[in-house]
Amino acid sequence: MFDIGLGELVVLGLLALLVFGPDRLPGAAASAGRFVSRTRETLAQARSQISESAELDSVGQDLKSLADLHPKRMLSSLAEPVDPGQATPKQAPKPASPIDPNAT
Fold first, then answer.
1. Is 30 inside any structural domain?
2. Is the dihedral of CA 50, 55, 59, 60 positive or negative?
3. Structure pTM?
4. Digits of tens for pLDDT over the chain (104 positions)?
5. Among residues 36, 31, 37, 34, which one has the least CA distance to residue 16?
6. Which domain holds residue 17?
């Protein structure tokens, strides 16, 4: 994952020994291990919550289909008939503006 070789691990170990000293190094290593463990647990919980929310997508789709039954949406779909060959309803042409230079 991190692509760390043996030489790099030795350098990190020597650096940790210089920073923490031989007395505090075991305690620091144990603290780092606990931190990694807690981080993994937190990530596992986040993954499970995300997978549970993915199951709720089907509920969202059901609610969307219920929203299509709203009276305003039903009336708007009935108000303008759509020709099966067209993707959008027919619209009346707009009248030319008296200021329009291209008007005939």
1. yes
2. positive
3. 0.44
4. 568 889 998 999 899 999 999 999 999 999 999 999 999 999 999 988 887 776 666 666 767 777 777 777 777 777 665 555 655 555 556 655 566 556 55
5. 31
6. 10-66
